[in-house]
Amino acid sequence: MKSINLKSVFTSGLIAGIIINVSGLSMIPVVGNKMSDVLSNLGLPPLSGLSIVFLIFVSIVLGILLVFLYAVLKPHLGSKIKTVIISSLIVWFISYFLNNLSLVVYGFMPIGLVIIGAVWGLGELLMASIVGSKLYKEVGQVK
Question: What is the pLDDT of residue 15?
Fold first, then answer.
């Protein structure tokens, strides 16, 4: 089994994280003020600058996690697209689906907004994982 190229995981994951961030920003026109309305109905202020910075950081971490998981699974699964899909589904289930489901169960978020976010999130993770997998280079692989 080949070792994982951590430098490539980090650099490819950084790009994947940027893709997740851009995708998140492009969702704003789709949901409009719904998020602000939900926060207001809960008596919470709109997202602050610090909240946005945190979300950017989380997106970068998710991008790195996607590429790392891809690098771990690739020797076992063989097929590149199969590995991309499985690594994306694992990250999506843990970070998007379960989190969003808990927000609905607790009554913090309406199901419609959560469905939009969860479906959008799966798409952005697949996109980020495809790009990250193309950029990732194994140890000794020519760039």
Answer: 97
Percent of the chain with pLDDT over 90: 66
**Token digits for 49?**
């600058």
Cα separations in angstroms, 73 against 35, 66, 77, 117, 131: 36, 11, 6, 26, 16
Q: Whole-prediction pTM value?
A: 0.89
Instruction: State the pLDDT at residue 40.
Output: 86
Condensed to tens digits (0 to 9), the pLDDT of residues 22-81 reads: 998 888 878 878 888 888 888 888 888 898 899 999 999 999 999 999 999 999 997 789
Please tell me the distance from the alpha carbon of residue 111 to that of residue 38, in angstroms, as a whole number.
12
Cα of 10 vs its chain's centroid, Å: 15
The amino acid at residue 52 is I
DSSP type of residue 45: P
Residue 91 burial by Cβ neighbours in a 10 Å radius (0-12, 13-18, 19+):
buried
Maximum Cα interatomic distance, the chain, rounded to a whole number of Å: 54
